[in-house]
Amino acid sequence: MATSLSRLSGRVWIHPGDPDPEAVKPCVAVIADDAGSTVVDAGQSPAHARSVKAAMADAGLPAARRLVYTHHHWDHTWGACAWEAEEIVGHESGAALLSAEARRPWSHAYLKEQVAAEPGLGPSFTARARAMSDWADFAVRPPTRTFTDRLVLPGGIEVRHVGGRHAPDSTVVAVPDSGVMLLGDCFYPPPFHLREPGPAAEEIDMGQITALVAEGFDWYVDSHSPPWRPPSA
């Protein structure tokens, strides 16, 4: 699988995720700016983050000035400790969740203990174990700057809370001058261990994604699929 950055549109670049769902490695977006790039999601591990940083350098993009979390889940935040960004932006409801995560004694042994106690955690925690070759200098980093509804960052980047069943802090990031909306996992069903029995548990949030597509961006990027255009684009 190619891991280099590619320009999607305007100043938005995409570092593709892993198409194998068991890898749980999402794409990472880079919004280039001469004053310092904005990186949307930190990667699922320090190794993943370092791969994105190397690709940015190879592409001649400015180093990261800030990270923006689309939500608090591990595959979007565990790479943060490998970045040297000035700030990390995230929704206020995710800040408390990540602060709690930061206090947990993460290790391969701890992951195994948790799965033994709650088998539903198996898919997520097994993927975490594969992603982390070692735990030296690892830390979960909560946001250093939070918002409640929406926030406009330098360069006209729009950060908006949308919530939903997948995560209470789900956030979309719009780059109007490039015609791109970055969706994170906002319209996905809940994580496996939080799903109720029944077919509805795996349904996507059609109302939410329909409303977002109606905003008319040229490109939409969710975290575990290739970038896509709406039917009318």
UniProtKB/TrEMBL annotation:
Q: Which domain of life is it from?
A: Bacteria
InterPro entries linked to this entry: Metallo-B-lactamas, NDM-1-like, RibonucZ/Hydroxyglut_hydro
Q: Using the record's annotation, list all stretches that form the Metallo-beta-lactamase domain.
A: 24-224
Q: What is this protein called?
A: MBL fold metallo-hydrolase
Q: Which organism is it from?
A: Streptomyces lannensis
